[in-house]
């Protein structure tokens, strides 16, 4: 790595510049310092997530109840899809480090292939994340939100989740559509949920084998399921609106804060991955064009590789704190 | 410097012939650790639900395994193992110190606010 690109021509003078007391070039060192500061940014986000989690310890959703989907397969498979995403990212980290290694050996053909595979891995990861977001936003079973913002979910007597559409009963309702001329001229009507709260209550009363699953965890970390009488009371006294899916203000899985952190942290990480893919593509074309061959050093591959590994490193922590702990 | 790599991990327990081999070895190790995490995450053995220092034993295992993974990614994929020790410490110690500090103050405060919400006079479930 001593093959620096720019030399000052005063290498023999002690204070003339061009010295590398840490045996790392300027660019590589700055990449490391950037990574340190970026690591602190992510720590800030993850520690803030921890703050909210400690604050709302007993009403925080359990990740295994939230991320249960695998593309093309129906059913309840927690962990499988994120494990796949983690593996994809680690694999692309490996191809990246192989590209760096091939670069050290000035092997243009191998570097090209490995850079291409790295870009591919990054794209697969990003698409998986897009799918994950889409599933999360669309939601699954639906829930009722209480006046205080907590979530009431529905289960059958075996403890399996029941979707609102399976028991809600349509009720005759009258509503006035909000238009610019009869309400706030600058506001549009909010999108309606598939069912109203009254329809859910009517359906709940008609189905004696549906129970309420509260947002509170018992001492074993499972969410408490109420008996039939308490369920009715909970739904009727506390329930307010129907929530379907998740966005920044509503979240059918738990407190909206959970969705906010999910969108923000995985989004910020996904943004880093996109930037990484972009940088990798630029370096990939530079490798093909022979830029580094002419320069006599593949150090740029190594620098961009550092960034790419860092993205993988962050994902390892996001994986732990969002999906495991 | 360019081609010098320290070709052993686990303090010399596992030696490699070339850098490429070491990369695959580290991948095998990282996949193994991830597999353990995923299996524990799916089955969540009851015995690991015991609380230890304010957190479930299972969560401690997850966090420790994550730090182990982070170590091998940094040391072998990012070649921290091959850097001059002064440079390594500059990056790692600074980061680790500030991260520990940040985590400590935020979690401490979060636990306190949670206690106030639960035992104080704030009603948040209605």
Automatic annotation (TrEMBL), chain A:
<dbReference type="InterPro" id="IPR024791">
    <property type="entry name" value="Cyt_c/ubiquinol_Oxase_su3"/>
</dbReference>
<protein>
    <submittedName>
        <fullName>Cytochrome oxidase subunit III</fullName>
    </submittedName>
</protein>
<dbReference type="InterPro" id="IPR035973">
    <property type="entry name" value="Cyt_c_oxidase_su3-like_sf"/>
</dbReference>
<dbReference type="InterPro" id="IPR000298">
    <property type="entry name" value="Cyt_c_oxidase-like_su3"/>
</dbReference>
<keyword id="KW-0812">Transmembrane</keyword>
<keyword id="KW-1133">Transmembrane helix</keyword>
<keyword id="KW-1003">Cell membrane</keyword>
<feature type="transmembrane region" description="Helical">
    <location>
        <begin position="29"/>
        <end position="51"/>
    </location>
</feature>
<feature type="transmembrane region" description="Helical">
    <location>
        <begin position="77"/>
        <end position="100"/>
    </location>
</feature>
<feature type="domain" description="Heme-copper oxidase subunit III family profile">
    <location>
        <begin position="1"/>
        <end position="325"/>
    </location>
</feature>
<feature type="transmembrane region" description="Helical">
    <location>
        <begin position="112"/>
        <end position="131"/>
    </location>
</feature>
<feature type="transmembrane region" description="Helical">
    <location>
        <begin position="261"/>
        <end position="292"/>
    </location>
</feature>
<keyword id="KW-0472">Membrane</keyword>
<dbReference type="GO" id="GO:0004129">
    <property type="term" value="F:cytochrome-c oxidase activity"/>
</dbReference>
<dbReference type="GO" id="GO:0005886">
    <property type="term" value="C:plasma membrane"/>
</dbReference>
<comment type="similarity">
    <text>Belongs to the cytochrome c oxidase subunit 3 family.</text>
</comment>
<dbReference type="InterPro" id="IPR013833">
    <property type="entry name" value="Cyt_c_oxidase_su3_a-hlx"/>
</dbReference>
<dbReference type="GO" id="GO:0019646">
    <property type="term" value="P:aerobic electron transport chain"/>
</dbReference>
<feature type="transmembrane region" description="Helical">
    <location>
        <begin position="304"/>
        <end position="324"/>
    </location>
</feature>
<dbReference type="Pfam" id="PF00510">
    <property type="entry name" value="COX3"/>
</dbReference>
Automatic annotation (TrEMBL), chain B:
<feature type="transmembrane region" description="Helical">
    <location>
        <begin position="90"/>
        <end position="107"/>
    </location>
</feature>
<dbReference type="GO" id="GO:0005886">
    <property type="term" value="C:plasma membrane"/>
</dbReference>
<feature type="transmembrane region" description="Helical">
    <location>
        <begin position="58"/>
        <end position="78"/>
    </location>
</feature>
<keyword id="KW-1133">Transmembrane helix</keyword>
<keyword id="KW-0472">Membrane</keyword>
<dbReference type="InterPro" id="IPR005171">
    <property type="entry name" value="Cyt_c_oxidase_su4_prok"/>
</dbReference>
<feature type="transmembrane region" description="Helical">
    <location>
        <begin position="23"/>
        <end position="43"/>
    </location>
</feature>
<dbReference type="Pfam" id="PF03626">
    <property type="entry name" value="COX4_pro"/>
</dbReference>
<protein>
    <recommendedName>
        <fullName>Cytochrome C oxidase subunit IV</fullName>
    </recommendedName>
</protein>
<keyword id="KW-0812">Transmembrane</keyword>
<keyword id="KW-1003">Cell membrane</keyword>
């Amino acid at each position: 790595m001593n093959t620096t690109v720019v030399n000052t021509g005063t290498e023999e003078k002690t204070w003339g510049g061009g010295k590398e007391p840490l045996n790392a070039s300027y660019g590589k060192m700055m990449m490391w310092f950037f990574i340190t500061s970026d690591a602190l940014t992510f720590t800030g986000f993850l520690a803030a997530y921890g703050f909210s989690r400690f604050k709302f310890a007993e009403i925080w959703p359990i990740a295994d109840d939230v991320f249960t989907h695998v593309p093309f397969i129906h059913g309840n498979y927690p962990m499988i899809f994120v494990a796949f995403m983690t593996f994809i990212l680690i694999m692309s980290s490996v191809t990246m480090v192989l590209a760096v290694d091939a670069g050290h050996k000035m092997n243009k053909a191998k570097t090209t292939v490995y850079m291409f595979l790295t870009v591919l891995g990054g794209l697969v990861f990003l698409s998986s994340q897009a799918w994950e977001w889409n599933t999360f936003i669309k939601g699954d079973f639906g829930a009722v939100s209480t006046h205080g913002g907590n979530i009431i979910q529905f289960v059958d007597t075996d403890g399996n989740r029941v979707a609102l559409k399976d028991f809600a009963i349509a009720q005759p309702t009258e509503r006035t559509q909000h238009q610019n001329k009869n309400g706030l001229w600058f506001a549009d009507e909010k999108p309606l949920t598939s069912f109203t709260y009254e329809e859910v209550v009517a359906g709940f009363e008609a189905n004696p084998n549906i129970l309420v699953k509260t947002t509170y965890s018992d001492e074993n970390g499972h969410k408490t399921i109420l008996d039939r009488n308490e369920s009715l009371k909970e739904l009727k006294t506390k329930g307010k609106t129907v929530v379907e899916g998740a966005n920044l203000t509503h979240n059918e899985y738990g407190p909206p804060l959970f969705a906010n952190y999910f969108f923000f942290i995985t989004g910020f990480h996904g943004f880093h991955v996109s930037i990484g893919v972009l940088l990798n593509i630029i370096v990939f074309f530079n490798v093909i064009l022979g830029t580094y061959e002419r320069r006599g050093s593949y150090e740029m591959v190594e620098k961009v590789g550092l960034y790419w590994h860092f993205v993988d490193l962050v994902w390892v922590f996001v994986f732990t704190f969002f999906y495991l702990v | 410097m360019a081609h010098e790599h320290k070709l052993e991990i686990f303090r010399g327990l596992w030696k490699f012939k070339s850098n490429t081999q070491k990369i695959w070895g580290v991948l095998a190790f990282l996949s193994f650790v991830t597999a353990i995490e995923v299996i524990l995450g799916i089955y969540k053995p009851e015995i690991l639900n015991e609380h230890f220092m304010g957190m479930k034993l299972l969560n401690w295992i997850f966090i420790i395994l994550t730090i182990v993974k982070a170590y091998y990614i940094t040391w072998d994929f990012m070649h921290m193992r091959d850097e001059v020790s002064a440079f390594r410490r500059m990056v790692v110690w600074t980061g680790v110190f500030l991260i520990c500090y940040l985590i400590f103050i935020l979690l401490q405060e979060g636990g306190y606010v949670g206690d106030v919400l639960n035992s104080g006079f704030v009603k948040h479930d209605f």
